[in-house]
Write a structure and sequence with these properties.
By secondary structure, the chain is of the alpha/beta class. The chain folds into two domains: 158 residues, Lyase, Ornithine Decarboxylase, Chain A, domain 1 (Beta Barrel); 171 residues, TIM Barrel (Alpha-Beta Barrel). The chain is built from twelve helices and 21 strands. Strands 4, 14, 15, 16, 17, 18, 19, 20 and 21 form a nine-stranded mixed sheet that branches. An eight-stranded parallel β-barrel has the order 5-6-7-8-9-11-12-13, surrounded by six helices. A three-stranded antiparallel sheet has the order 1-2-3. Helix 2 packs parallel to helix 9 and helix 5 packs across helix 6. The longest helix has 19 residues. It is elongated. 48% of the residues are buried. It binds ligand LLP. InterPro entries: Ala_racemase/Decarboxylase_C (IPR009006), DAP_deCOOHase_LysA (IPR002986), De-COase2_C (IPR022643), De-COase2_CS (IPR022657), De-COase2_N (IPR022644), De-COase2_pyr-phos_BS (IPR022653), Orn/DAP/Arg_de-COase (IPR000183), PLP-binding_barrel (IPR029066). Its cofactor is pyridoxal 5'-phosphate. It catalyses: meso-2,6-diaminopimelate + H(+) = L-lysine + CO2.
Length: 412
């Protein structure tokens, strides 16, 4: 999962730091991320796609320290809201490396991003184009855009995270794209600079990318043949990571090899928007066993992390591997690992083979760095977890644990 995650004498360490000690010091539930892992993944992207612009998808993990780590390594940002623009700028991402997607951008958000002079808007509808043109006029700016095209490709992933299929709400149908590009070209305050697509997330196979990028490259060439000058070919994010022990991640190098014959057909700056593949396996969620109960037919390990901390199992039926933070060499059992929240969907693992644990033991939930904390909530008035970044033995709290006053601070 992560080469920096390893057992030393039966105790789990991340980048040389004992996860048991972190849990004892900062409490649980606790997110711990590995900085070296993130740097390695970014380097891998840069080496696989030389000359490309890597825009980290902030939605995967919006902690400003994580975003700033990316910015320090030269990455840009892929954002989907005014809040993400705010984080990206605060974390030091150069606006000339920010791309902005999303089907429902508000006027406030659009104005903020135009004023920040971001690289481009990935426009998802004709109405958005019209509003951008108006706002450009009001602000005296020419707004750079790409059109997000929907290439009608099945990425073979969970339906909730497939975004480029015919019936999805995202983008403009590829068959109608040329018409929209011509319309955009007629607008005084719009500058057309590229083509964008993003077909989905947790994709483990190159073939949907090959299919989608071929279509998008054809469009790019056809637009250029009509004298439309373009510069950016944004192929989105979506590379899948290892969740189950038997999974094999799709690596940037594999994607690059599969796409290079197609990408060679255009002279464009390639833009990538990886999220999960940069941070997913950088992070673990440490949780403490509260109770254990056996109901005859089923065994339950009840922990202090719930669906409000990690919602992926509940909404995507996602698998997250779980390891004991301290191996005790006890026999293994088959159990559900569940949270304290009053919903049956509040589970981290079902029918999982796990070393028997007892009250007070710590468990590490793996692959929790992406869409973990970022999707957490206050459900059941539960303060959100503490986040810690480890970097070659150094430990830094990058987000303090919340308290009740914080949760209610706007409710007066
Ligand atoms: N670009 C765009 C336009 C996106 O919508 C997304 C993700 C990405 C890039 C980054 O995709 P990634 O490289 O992380 O796969 N909450 C879900 C994942 C939702 C992904 C949404 N869009 C989950 O936990 O699996």
């Amino acid at each position: 999962y992560n080469p920096y995650l390893e057992y030393v004498k039966d105790e789990l360490f991340l980048e040389g730091v004992s996860l048991r000690e972190l849990a004892e010091k900062y409490g649980t539930p606790l997110y711990v991320y590995s900085a070296s892992y993130i740097r390695d993944r970014l380097r891998e992207y840069r080496e696989s796609f030389p000359g490309a612009l890597i825009c980290y998808a902030v939605k995967a993990n919006f902690n400003p320290h994580i975003v700033s780590l990316m910015a320090g390594e030269g990455a840009g940002a892929d954002i989907v809201s005014g809040g993400e623009l705010y984080v990206a700028l605060m974390a030091g991402v150069n606006p000339s490396r920010i791309v902005y997607a999303g089907v429902g951008k508000t006027v406030k958000e659009l104005v903020e991003a135009i004023k920040a002079d971001i690289l481009m808007f990935n426009v998802e509808s004709r109405m958005e184009l019209e509003i951008l043109n108006q706002l450009g006029e009001q602000l005296g700016k020419k707004v750079r855009i790409s059109i997000r095209v929907n290439p009608h490709v099945d990425p073979k992933t969970h339906p909730y995270i497939a975004t480029g299929m015919k019936k999805s709400k995202f983008g403009i149908d590829i068959d109608r794209a040329e018409e929209e590009y011509r319309y955009a070209l007629s607008m005084k305050n719009i500058q057309v600079v590229g083509v964008h697509c993003h077909i989905g997330s947790q994709i483990l196979d190159t073939s949907p990318y090959v299919e989608a990028v071929s279509k998008v490259v054809d469009l790019y060439r056809s637009l250029e043949d009509q004298g439309i000058e373009l510069q950016y070919l944004d192929i989105g994010g979506g590379l899948g990571i290892k969740y189950k022990p038997e999974d094999r991640a799709l690596t940037p190098m594999e994607l690059s090899s599969a796409l290079s014959p197609i990408l060679q057909k255009v002279k464009a700056t390639v833009v990538l928007e990886p999220g999960r593949s940069l941070v997913g396996n950088a992070g673990v969620l440490i949780t403490q066993v509260q109770f254990v109960k056996d109901k005859g037919e089923k065994h339950f390990v009840i922990v202090d992390a719930g669906m409000n901390d990690l919602i992926r199992p509940a909404i995507y039926d996602a698998y997250h591997h779980i390891l004991p933070v301290v191996k005790r060499g006890r026999p293994s059992i088959v159990t559900d690992v569940v949270g304290p929240i009053c919903e049956t969907g509040d589970f981290l693992a079902k029918d999982r083979q796990l070393e028997e644990v007892g009250r007070g033991d710590y468990l590490a939930v793996l692959s929790a760095g992406a869409y973990g904390f970022a999707m957490s909530s206050h459900y059941n008035v539960r303060p959100r977890a503490c986040e810690v970044l480890v970097d070659r033995g150094y430990v830094r709290v990058i987000r303090e644990r919340e308290d009740y006053q914080y949760i209610l601070s706007k409710s007066s």
